[in-house]
Design a protein that fits this description.
The chain is mainly α. It contains three helices and no strands.
Length: about 80
């Protein structure tokens, strides 16, 4: 992808495709690359954290369901005793 970009850039600047000055990456591009890399890392972390939260929610739902069933069984036993 970058090779194609460099060829297009060289053509736009009227320089030969093998001109080293055309292939130099400006500092602003490095900053953009760093920004995108940081953003990708944060998105990845957010995805992992969201998956972890989803797991905790699923576990909580299972526990609440089991407790609800236990309370229903206890209520039935209390009715039988009464």
């Amino acid at each position: 992808m970058f090779k194609a970009f460099r060829r297009l850039r060289a053509a736009a600047l009227g320089a030969p495709a093998n001109d080293p000055a055309v292939h130099a990456v400006p500092a602003r591009a490095d900053a953009g690359h760093d920004f995108v890399a940081t953003l990708a890392q944060q998105a990845s972390s957010l995805g992992r954290e969201a998956a972890e939260v989803r797991g905790v929610i699923d576990d909580t739902v299972k526990l609440a369901t089991a407790q609800g069933q236990a309370v229903q069984a206890l209520a039935q036993q209390l009715q039988d005793v009464a």
